[in-house]
Design goal:
Helices cover 36% and strands 18% of the residues. With 160 residues, it is of the alpha/beta class. It binds zinc ion.
């Protein structure tokens, strides 16, 4: 048996705040505010926010953008030992990418009841066919992450 990795949770809130700051950048562009960072050895190596509309790119979810950024930064198509922080529970597309990237751990903030695939609409990372085990936990700064989304949608409704 391989030893389970030692998880350092002491900076989880700090990195989630960085992801929240990125989400806020997206909101300024009119994008649904979701932000993500990839952390390796305590350093942010990838950043992203949700930007499908401004980028004309349906795949430009925060996780996708941050993972691409990280892979370029470390010049590796795999990101072992890294932690992805994202303000919203990942969708099926991003969950697949997380496995392909060999990310060690995913930490998310708010739940995504409609499309979240980590715990809301299924438990993707527990699927037996996957050849890589991802550690995951939700609810880190969950209220703040959820509040940013609620406020965005409230403002958008108010504008119409
Ligand atoms: Zn996604």
């Amino acid at each position: 048996m391989r030893q389970p990795p030692i998880i350092d949770r002491s900076n989880d809130q700090y990195f989630m705040r960085e992801a929240l700051a990125l989400a806020a950048e997206g909101a300024l562009l009119g994008e649904v505010p979701v932000g993500a960072v990839v952390v390796q050895d305590g350093v942010i190596v990838g950043r992203g926010f949700n930007r499908p509309i401004s980028g004309n790119d349906p795949s430009a979810h925060a996780e996708m953008v941050a993972i691409r950024d990280a892979a370029q930064a470390v010049s590796n198509y795999r990101l072992p030992g890294t932690t992805l922080y994202v303000t919203l529970e990942p969708c099926s597309m991003c969950a697949g990418l997380i496995v392909h990237s060999r990310i060690m751990r995913v930490v998310y903030g708010a739940l995504e009841p409609k499309a979240g695939i980590v715990q809301s609409q299924g438990q993707f990372f527990a699927q037996g066919f996957l050849n890589h085990r991802v550690l995951y936990e939700g609810g880190v700064l969950g209220e703040e992450c959820g509040a940013m989304l609620s406020e965005f949608f409230r403002m958008r409704r108010a504008k119409v």
